[in-house]
Design a protein that fits this description.
Two copies of one chain form a homodimer.
Chain A (H helix, E strand, L loop, with lengths): L2 E7 L3 E8 L5 E8 L8 E3 L2 E7 L1 H19 L7 E8 L4 E4 L20 E2 L7 H14 L1 H5 L10 H11 L1 H6 L2 E4 H9 L10 E2 H7 L12 H8 L4 H5 L5 E2 L4 E4 L2 H7 L6 E3 L2 E2 H9 L4 E7 L3 E8 L12 E4 L6 E8 L3 H10 L8 H9 L9 E3 L16 E6 L5 H25 L4 E7 L1 H5 L1 H11 L3 E3 L5 H13 L6 H8 L11 H22 L8 H16 L2
Parallel strand pairs in A: 1-6, 6-14, 10-11, 15-21, 21-22
Antiparallel strand pairs in A: 1-2, 2-3, 4-5, 5-8, 7-9, 12-13, 15-16, 16-18, 17-18, 19-20
Helix pairs in contact in A: 2-4, 11-17, 13-14, 14-16, 16-19, 17-18
């Protein structure tokens, strides 16, 4: 038997998954909860935008989880492991010295949050992101075209610039900044030194303005155009080729091999972001859209490099090989999905209100359109396709009879319509989408949501059989670099599965949702686009007509 | 001492109020809860639109309440009474025989709801109202111009037509139909016989298409145009002059005088609708708008007949002398105000949520605009100025941080904006509004709402000192017809008072609400008017800018 290990670095914990390379069977898994900060996130009571992580948690997490899965799998299981794969949140850059050692682990900086990993959801660099967007719009619009038109405060260069301005001492001590997804493989293979460090295409392409189209990372002149050259120390460290998850960054070094009980010399795959490897764990291929549905969503699709691909307006990122080698990776997402439902349940019902299950039961008794309600799912802004964090949510069609179950269903439907806008945009730009495979907590917990999505998309909604698709995707990359799978085609075919239950569209619901989606689109464009002027007079009436028609049915 | 009695026939009960004619001091009051149906309303489990009342409840109510106030006021108090005034809900027509006796009190019909009083809120005649609207639009648009452009299912002719179609036997037995506000004075003065019956201008003008402009009640030809002539039996009974509340319908007959312990021969004033006499009880005069704020609102203003008045588009009714003799009476209203707050508290919080008081406390901590929320107050349609029951409510600006207190404040503000649309429409058509006097439960219970109204209106909000302004207004009419007051000018000056606490506009809030009202108007016109095409892109952004500015303040 050949096995591989996937390491999945999340926001609050790290998971290791040991799988059978032949069929993806999950042999053992273990989770380590980070010990620093608030559930692993170092926060600042005076600045709600700040979110950091301690690099020591990553190291401890590797040790605890790998040892435990090998223990679970039994004696000598370590000898069957052919490779390791890594995914992480991102953009989560870590300031490092010239040897690639994290500053946050070194004496002068151990208590300084600015020397820690800048977690993906750190939003302190909003102003810097706007400056970078403006600079790119002025001189390199092609940079923005690959990332949806707006550079985000969550991303690499914005965070570096913010650190340079906030804590010059830390910034000066950092020879470079390394994405968490790149740093862990480098640590395991002892290749953290900047002249040996491999960076993965996923983080580089989606967050760092890297593209072969313009010769790699952005030009020093561009960087100097917004930061007076201060970031070029980091830029100058980017000398090694950028690689994808079918390539290894090196071999597991002796020290780590002995310590963990693994064979010395097994390869460690290039790292990538969690959702990207999660898409592989779901079985992504051309024609398959993967939706990771949690507090927010991440939506991924791939299309062969050979076919070419135009830019997709409003889609967060289009990067060659960021998901599947040999394919363009296309990433989009909704800023809030589960968070909207949690807001309704917990924030809007301060007393003992209805819980998720009760609201689902109540919402499930309704026919589409029966409530007369329609919502815009922008309670946390809109990531795709409008790329506008200053949009807000809306509920239309309220009457004195509107009930919690009706509103809850309208909120679910609004996220389905927002999801369909993303699918439709991809399709309109030449990306084939024949089926959707979902993963993430909500895809398992809410059959009602899944059925509504099937009806709104008018296509089958499948659910991944794995409940840890990110770690599985990492283990699949490990199987490929370890030679246990020939390539990702074979790995996807043999190591991923979907659940037996597939949500099929119900024709009569499809027809009603087509009407509702037409109204949603009018609201979407009217409130979301500067040029989206509309006549809204008919909207409320159309909803009432639909409500009457649906209620009149038996 | 001279006293007078006001009788106020409400939806669930009747109240008698004994006042001192010199100063309006309330000497005694008594309430009788109707005994039939569900809290006085006869309903039908199979038809939620049906709402009727038993005429026997009115009779019993007179006896109980008048006897009790005289008991309370002490021996011989009956001898001080100089007159009786009557107000009631409406349009609440009662089918009667040629002697004016209510069919519902007669043997063949005692259990038949169609033979009872058709309570104002009976909505069974929706289709008939639409037919009447269409007929008037085709041949007599001037009829519609006086009642806001749409004839309502709550009104006289629609209810008659519905009865003719639903229960021809009852309809055939009815020699005529008499408004409750006209029937009670006729009963007390023994003038119910159709050739003696006086009808009041308030009900006739607002609900029956009566106007001196076209020679009185609508032409038989017009009525035949929508009903094949069936309603002309009722139309033919309308032979007596129509009178206003400064005139008496007759004198208290001996039987009633002896039975109640009142002087024989005291005059009974013509009846009017509750809100109209309530406005008099509040002290209405030119320049004063009266708002009766309860589950819905009724808004009233007057302007001298001598000055003339154009039609006011979208305002429910403009009728000479329907409120104050010598003046045009202008009636408008919002379909839901308190009902919106009750919906939020009771329907949207099915568990133990926050009550009204807690939500008020929470909402009161916010500055205007701070929540970024804006609502349209159309959860029960829009009565004025859009006259469209198929409009629905909307909440804009929702985020994952939006809280119940924020939403509750936005709902209060939405009703204030809706109220301002009415005030502004009246003013734009030449009605002077210098001050607002409020009455009704909410004006007493919610200082927060009153302050917001003062800020949104940018004018002082006063509250009537009387908590039964309708009965007081009726007693004032009684004082006038009884000769204890010279006219309504003197009665208003000496018999009405406002509370000491006046809500004054707060300049910094006024400025913010001016901005918010501008956004509200755009939503109002965009969703409410067929030609109201708008570009909504800026609306969410404007709200966020305002939110930021307000939060940035100390």
């Amino acid at each position: 038997m050949q096995t591989s290990i996937g390491l999945d670095f999340g926001t609050n914990s790290v998971r290791a998954l040991l799988v059978d390379c032949a069929d993806g069977r999950e042999l053992a898994t273990s989770v380590f909860h980070y010990t620093h900060g608030d559930m692993g996130v170092i926060i600042d009571a005076n600045d709600p935008d700040l979110a950091r992580q301690h690099p020591g948690d990553y190291i401890k997490g590797i040790v605890h989880t790998v040892k435990r899965v090998l223990d679970q799998a039994g004696p000598k299981s370590g000898a069957t492991v052919v490779g390791i794969g890594v995914d992480s949140t991102g953009s989560t850059p870590i300031p490092v010295d010239a040897k690639g050692e994290a500053l946050g682990l070194q004496a002068p900086f151990v208590d300084n949050p600015h020397a820690m990993a800048w977690l993906w959801k750190d939003h302190t660099a909003t102003r810097e992101a706007a400056e970078i967007t403006a600079a790119a719009a002025a001189s390199h619009p092609e940079y923005l075209a690959k990332c949806g038109g707006v550079y985000s405060a969550e991303w690499y260069w914005a965070k570096l610039l913010k650190c340079a301005r906030t804590d010059p001492e830390v910034f000066a001590a950092a020879a470079s900044w390394v994405e968490l997804a790149d740093w862990v493989p480098a640590v395991l293979t002892n290749t953290t030194a900047l002249d040996k460090l491999s960076r993965g295409i996923c983080a580089a392409g989606h967050k760092c303005f890297y593209s072969e189209e313009w010769g790699g990372f952005p030009s020093p002149e561009f960087i100097a155009s917004f930061d007076d050259g201060i970031l070029n120390q980091a830029r100058a460290s980017m000398t090694q080729p950028v690689i994808n998850v079918s390539q290894s960054v090196g071999i597991l070094c002796r020290g780590w091999a002995e310590y963990l009980g693994l064979p010395e010399g097994i390869p460690v795959a290039a790292g990538a972001f969690d959702c990207h490897l999660g898409a592989i764990g779901c079985g992504i291929r051309p024609g398959t859209m993967v939706k990771v549905i949690g507090t927010s969503t991440c939506d991924l699709a791939v299309t062969p490099l050979a076919g070419g691909l135009t830019d997709i307006p409003g889609v967060c990122g289009v990067v060659p090989e960021s998901v599947l080698p040999g394919h363009f990776g296309i990433e989009a997402g909704q800023s809030a999905v589960g968070d909207i439902f949690n807001w309704y349940v917990h924030k809007l019902q301060p007393g003992e209100g209805l819980n998720h299950a009760e609201l689902n039961v109540s919402a499930a008794t309704l026919k589409p359109g029966e409530s007369g309600l329609l919502a815009l799912d922008w309670m946390n802004g809109n990531r795709t396709v409008l790329v506008d964090q200053e949009l807000t949510g809306l509920i239309l069609g309220l009457t004195l009879h509107s009930s919690p179950g009706e509103i809850f269903r309208a909120l679910i439907e609004s996220t389905a319509f927002g999801a369909r806008m993303i699918r439709d945009r991809m399709v309109s730009c030449g990306v084939k989408v024949d089926e959707v495979i979902c993963c993430g907590g909500i895809s398992l917990k809410s059959p009602l949501l899944m059925q509504i999505y099937a009806d709104v998309f008018n296509c089958p909604m499948k659910v991944s059989a794995s409940e840890q698709t990110c770690a599985l995707g990492s283990a699949m990359a490990a199987a490929v670099v370890g030679g246990a799978q020939e390539n990702f085609d074979t790995a996807v075919a043999s190591m991923t599965r979907i659940r037996d239950e597939v949500y099929m569209p119900i024709p009569e619901n499809v027809a009603v949702y087509e009407t509702l989606f037409g109204i949603y689109q009018q609201l979407h464009d009217g409130f979301g686009l500067r040029e989206g002027q509309r006549n809204y007079f008919e909207l409320m009436k159309d909803l009432i007509q639909l409500r009457k028609a649906q209620r009149a049915q038996a």
